[in-house]
Amino acid sequence: MSSTDAILVTPGQKDSFRQGTVPVIDEIGPGELLLEVVAVGICGTDAEICEGLYGQAPAGHEALVLGHESLCRVVQAGSDATGFKPGDLVVPIVRRPCPERCPACAVGRWDECLTGHYQEHGIKGLDGFLRGRLVLDADAVVSAPAALGEFAVLTEPLTIVEKALERALQIHTAPGHPQTGLVTGAGPVGILAALLLRSRGLDVYVVDQRPADSPKARFVESMGGHYIDDTKTPFEKAGPAGGFDIGLEATGYAPLVFRALSALAQNGVLALTGVTGGHHSLDIDVNLMNSTMVLENQAMVGSVNAARAHYERAVQDLAGFGVQFPGLLEQVITARHPLADFAKALQKGPDDIKTIVTLG
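User: That's the sequence. What structure does it adopt?
Assistant: Structure tokens below.
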């Protein structure tokens, strides 16, 4: 057994992240893959784990290897790992099913696990991908086309949007395809949500608090979307007169959630993907909200994590983005750092979209 460099954290202890080493199995089983990590995306979840807010190390361990958004390359494939060969790019699936194999996990819908005993790489009970090499079961990854290159590291955050949009469209069954989309937040999930909605032909409005001449604003406009600086013009006034058919909320900021809900069109659906901690009190006219949602046939739905089908769809859509929106994927990744500079990767600027750590 050899070892590999990794970024470790002691869950529950603020600023406990550090570079260390972890063991790597040298001999793989028939259905396993030996992988080298190419790149890992850094997001708010990683920062919150480093703040000591949550996280769970594997059973019997004090430390957790960080990183859940990843892209890997196959080094060696076991005899039963059909369809994989050395050099192939793969994206590991973050969440794994609960040991009880509840009805949801039993059919591959671990994103809707009923026991809550699922595990998540780099978050809950399973080591993550901020390390040089690791071994995974072949059924725990999805293939990525070589042409995508490092941009396949965007697969996991896009899966969040894929599932959220799927849920929204399952509800929005009124005659006529949804025409307008609202995205609140121009972070990585919000930007990918805008790309996904535009690729589906929707007229998309993205709301953030950066100036109208900022890189994020220019990015949205370059895809044919509309950018709204909510500090200058409330998005309720800048959007389409009839409201938004589909809303994807990517901030988790409660006041913005209810503002987005109030901006829906008749039959509109708002899907929530953002989560924030703490408490936030609001004064809301719940009678008006209830009446509007009933009379306008509106819905609000939460969405978390993703299943294999969402990963496979995300890989396909990323490839499609490269064709439909030439040069834009290159602008989504705004900062790259080596493993040794992980601390810098946590320091996100206001105009950054996605920061990645490069390993291979």
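The CA atoms of residues 247 and 270 lie 4 Å apart.
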